[in-house]
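Q: I'm writing up a methods section and want to include an example of the input and output format. Could you take the sequence below and give the corresponding predicted structure tokens, formatted cleanly so I can copy it straight into the document?
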Amino acid sequence: MWVTGIFMMKKTLFCASDAGGANNLIPIIKWFQDNGIEYYVVGSKTTRLLFENSSISLDSRGMISVEEAREYLLEKKVSSLICGTTCYEVSERFLIKAARYLGIKSLVVLDEWFNYNLRFTSNGQDLDCLPDVICCQDGLSKELAIKEGIPEKILEITGSVYFSDMFNRNQDHKKKDNVVPEFLSNVDLPVITFLSETHSTDYGHDDKGGPLGSYIGYTEKTVREDIFNILKNLNFKCIVIEKLHPNDLNVYDELGDEHIKWKTVKDVDSSELFLNSDMVVGMRSVALLESVLFGCNTVSYQPNLKGEQVCTAVNLGHVQCCNEKTDLANWFRSSINGKKNISKREVLFIKENVPQRIYELI
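A: Here is the clean output for your methods example:
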């Protein structure tokens, strides 16, 4: 009884520096709130707004060293650590290393189906940032992680936290009146959403590559130009909503002409956006899966792709990948057919009670 009392005095620490990690931790934190379990949250400038919009307060905006992380864990009497993933040397890495040193159990929730090795190394070679448990979305995710050298013994298939939660919320949305974002109010045109990413920053725009690897053959800047020119050549009247990645710090000139209205947005609710979209074009963002689950006609456009195909929505067989402008033009012509319905049976990464399963693991 005494040991249980001491444990209950301690708290779980959540940490997410990237948007994907935050989106996967928020449903778990909400489950903690609903069950009266105390916790702390460490975030970043990128994830602060995501947490605050979900009524989750940050205790800290991050760590800059393992020593600072160790002191924080001791000061807060943290008993367990749940993190998102990141490809950068930020708080998650420092906290996982400090937790291992202090004997605190750590767990990481995956949000993508690629770059496993890159998420758990601080030097590009050794897997020196591995937690005690890694939660995989499905069997494919576990298989791919093992292929990249992640030890099988620490991999657990839990289902995707974010997509399982989002699928259930989507069912609730269907029962309610649809909320229309202000930038789409009084719009009587087909809505095309373009899911931008930070490829020019991460992978460069030429053969020199970038901090996350070699040039992949295109950037978000070349893709946005292609989309505009293709729609212009098709003489297609529509509104394009360009949704920037939360980490994107660039300023873009809005495109458009007498037929095409172009609006660039950033911090918007993706659920509301997809509920009001007729077509969605992305590159390899995991949000393409979210779009599919909302019933949108969805495509991956990766012109002149170099290297392997890592778009999860493509690899799982849910969307087509276009590598040429003519392919994307043909897709636009054939995709003005309204929404589609998708069954939970079609997606193996959607499971019941995922936050509770993760709580039991930690």
